[in-house]
């Protein structure tokens, strides 16, 4: 699935203003992932953001416009969600979701690399 290049540019522009972070981009989850300090932070899909956040905030975030739980293998994945365009349309809402992901990034664990056999 191709990712939304305009949305990716918005994320890239926002993150480029943060000199304290090491930002890398990787194709992942059928979209473009923005790795912050070697950890998956936010992903851009066709028109959704995929956010990684503190799982303790799930109930509160589920009330926000555009929030869509991330379901994998029939179960909700704690600490991850999708955000539909209505949820990030304004600059304030867009900044909310990106800051949410950046705030959690410091606490997030780096994924273990799989060893090829």
TrEMBL record:
What biological-process terms (Gene Ontology) are attached?
A: methylation
- Lineage top rank: taxon: Bacteria
- One Gene Ontology MF term: methyltransferase activity
* One Pfam family from the record: TfoX_N
**Classification via SUPFAM superfamilies:** YgaC/TfoX-N like
Write the record's keywords in alphabetical order, separated by commas.
Methyltransferase, Transferase
Query: Can you give the residue ranges of the TfoX N-terminal domain?
Result: 23-103
- What protein does this entry describe? RNA methyltransferase
